[in-house]
Amino acid sequence: MKVIFENASLQARMATLQLEQGEAVHVLHPNQIVAFQGMSELREDALMKLPGMFRKKRLFQSRVSGPGQLLMGLPEAYSLAVVPLEAEDDLLFEFRHVLFYTEGVTFTTHLQSFKNTLITQDLVKMQFHGPGKLGLLTAGPLHQMALDPQQPLYIDVSCLVAYPRQANLRPSVYGNTLASQHMNYHWEITGHGHVLMQPCKPDPKLDEHMKSDSFLRRIAREVLPFGGVFIK
User: Fold this and answer.
1) Distance (Å, whole) CA 14 – CA 75
2) Domains of the chain with bracketed CATH
């Protein structure tokens, strides 16, 4: 499968997937298919398996075969990135970020600890195996950072998209007392390889300014330790 981005970069808000005879792609968000050029019978929609319905909050997924091409588009503030997969890759992905994967790609699930599940509200991570391609839906352009075995990397839990299976993770905050009380939980990560992250995230502070809210609730969020995390 060949992927052509609108601005010739590796990530954008719109891309054309060109499929040759014998190639196919599985689209987990069919509503993002803007246009398809090919025979009608080459698209087959089916019910997602129950775990996929729960994680994606959707009922259906599409399988589109070649020859043909489909145009994928995303709403404002979202980006599409395509990650090549090899058989030996060990990255664990947040399933909610997966927009599509090519035929032949397989995946396995990895259960998180109870504590990490509570923090991320996600019970499992997905490890995809190539060869093939994985299309990712992210808030802002996908960004890659290298890990170090000794120097920890702190990443906001809402921004981490993928990390190596053998990396060491633990939920944490950092900085002085004031800093740690006013930030979202972060992953403290050490190890080898690299992580993928989305650099943008919703700003709850901005939402608070735009909405009418209780004065006492706003004070509690600012004053109490981790108030911004637990008081919604």
Assistant:
1) 9
2) 2-201 (3.60.160.10)
> Which residue, among 145, 225, 147, 148, has the nearest Cα to 185 in the 3D structure?
225
Contacts of 155 (CB under 8 A, 6+ apart): 186, 187, 189, 195, 197
Q: SS3 for 198?
A: coil
Burial class (CB in 10 A: 0-12, 13-18, 19+), 158: middle
Strand ranges across the sheet with 24-27 = 11-12, 78-85, 132-139, 98-102, 24-27, 60-65, 43-47
Tens of pLDDT along 173-217? 898 888 888 888 899 999 999 999 998 865 455 444 434 455 456
d(CA 95, CA 97): 5
Ordered DSSP codes for 162-181: EEETT-EEEEE--SSHHHHH
Tens digits of residue pLDDT in 149-173: 999 999 998 899 999 988 888 888 8
Could you tell me the pTM of the whole model? 0.75
